[in-house]
Design a protein that fits this description.
This protein is α/β, with parallel strands linked by helices. Helices cover about 45% and strands about 20% of the residues. The chain has helices at about 5-10, 20-30, 55-65, 100-115, 135-170, 210-215, 220-235, 250-255, 260-270, 295-305, 320-330, 350-370, 380-390, 405-415, 420-430, 430-440, 445-450, and strands at about 5, 40-50, 75-80, 85-90, 120-130, 175-185, 190-200, 245-250, 280-285, 310-315, 330-335, 375, 395, 405, 420.
């Protein structure tokens, strides 16, 4: 049912329901009649996700002020329900002043929120400054029609903008792919060396998968998009050394590679990029999947016959990856430990501490049975790393060694990121000033060279 309420009333959750006619009449009275002589803005909102109307409306004055610091403060009123609603926006002061640029502010909010938040909305805006002579109903209808037309125009423009930017990503190469190195500790030599890395969407256009996927229209086949991402990342890795790891969902493997012929084509792609299949590892992300015409194990076997191996991503105590581990057996050559499996202190919870030690021991036995490695992700301090080394975990994918690197830098400097001594790593990661420098620079091998450490 439609309601017409001042924003403050919504926040107090004392909303009174009106019939449709009464709601519009009430809205016109409070929004138009009481604000004669002021510029009026009407925003039409659809597909609000991840926030309530009250939470969303609260964002508007704050973001408009942030975007236009010198502009007048604004007041908001709402007409509608969660599926589609109108927000009447009016400056608080009658005196002339710098008007807020509502269209620009909302456009900026709409484009920025996918980068840092899990919510979204579509909008169109109508406006009028000629509200002295026309009656309230005429003004209301004009604002509504303008807002609807603007939303329609926006949807067309956004779809082309997003799709064009996504297509640009797929058309370009290296600048839009990055790699997170995996570092190995050699117990005998007591040195650290880069052995390869996990390849991600990232670079100039995008900082990650989520941002790219938000630019893909909802009617697109997401499995097809994931295949395009995989092909793009492989192409960006041309002639790259070391073990190259790519995320892929089990469902995409089932849907995209249902035959040996398609896997053979993937192997040909690797050959054209001068990448050995034995240097490729597919990380099976933890997502539900449905086996219909073919089993996941059979699809993975096609890859394994070429030498391509698999990793269980985010493997942890409560992980659902255990069944995949059992099904794929020897084809799993890496267990990527979920940080929750080792971020613990014995003084916090002795039972949890012992349980996690037992889990790491279990992973070691699994790895030994498959001649696999265990990789600890997101290790963020030296003490935790040394603790894991003491418990036979020797591979790390962590920012304490390196942030994500461009493929070009990785290729050109791979030979330099080898055999860094334990003494040098301890010196850097045990000194607050050097830890700060490492966080800023992002690569411990480069910092060690600058410091003259080996």
């Amino acid at each position: 049912m439609l309601v017409a309420l001042p924003f403050r009333t919504i926040l107090q959750k004392t909303a009174e329901n009106f019939g449709l006619a009464d709601a519009e009449k009430n809205f016109r009275e409070n929004f138009i009649e009481k604000n004669r002589g002021k510029p009026l803005f009407m925003m039409f909102v659809e597909n609000l996700k991840g926030k309530t109307i009250a939470e969303f409306v609260q964002e508007i004055p704050e973001f408009v002020k942030k975007t236009n610091p010198e502009s007048q403060d604004i007041h908001c009123m709402v007409l509608g329900d969660a599926s589609r609603f109108y927000v009447g926006i009016v400056p608080l002061d009658k005196a002339p002043g710098t008007l807020p640029n509502i269209e620009s502010a909302m456009g900026k909010l709409h484009s920025e929120i996918p980068k840092y938040a899990e919510w979204d909305f579509d909008f169109g805006i109508g406006r009028t400054q000629c509200n002295f002579i026309s009656d309230a109903e005429e003004i209301f209808n004009e604002l509504v029609n303008s807002a609807h037309k603007n939303l329609k125009d926006n949807l067309v423009r956004w779809s082309w903008t997003y799709l064009n930017r996504a297509n640009d990503y797929f058309a370009n190469v290296e600048a839009n792919a990055v790699i997170q190195p995996i570092v190995h500790f050699d117990v005998r030599k007591e040195t650290y060396s880069v052995k390869g890395g996990e390849v991600f969407v990232g670079g100039e256009l995008y900082t990650g998968y989520a941002e790219l996927l938000r630019d893909i229209p909802q009617d697109q086949d997401i499995n097809r998009v994931e295949l395009l991402i995989l092909e793009k990342l492989v192409t960006a890795c041309r002639d790259a050394p070391g073990l190259l790891k790519f995320n892929v969902s089990p469902q995409t493997l089932l849907d995209t590679f249902p035959s040996a012929e398609k896997v053979f084509r993937f192997n040909e792609l690797l050959a054209r990029q001068k990448i050995l299949p034995t240097n490729v590892r597919l990380e099976l992300v933890e997502q539900p999947y449905e086996e219909t015409h073919i089993k996941l194990k059979d699809v993975c076997r096609y890859f394994f016959q070429f030498g391509i191996t698999f990793a269980a991503d985010d493997f942890g105590v409560k992980s659902q990856s255990h069944q995949v581990i059992l099904d794929l057996g020897e084809m799993i050559k890496e267990f990527k430990l979920d940080p929750i499996s080792f971020k613990f202190k014995p003084e916090d919870d002795q039972t949890k501490f012992l349980d996690n030690l037992a889990f790491i021991d279990y992973c070691i036995r699994l790895a030994d049975n498959r001649t696999a490695i265990i990789t600890a992700e997101a290790v963020d301090d030296y003490d935790t790393m040394r603790f894991l080394i003491a418990h036979q975990v020797f591979y790390f994918q962590s920012n304490i060694f390196s942030k994500k690197l461009s493929l070009r830098f990785y290729r050109e400097n791979f030979h330099k990121m080898q055999n860094l001594s334990e003494d040098a790593v301890r010196k850097i990661l045990s000194d607050d000033a050097l830890i700060e420098r490492q966080a800023e620079g992002g690569n411990i091998f480069v910092l060690a060279e600058e410091l003259g450490l080996k």
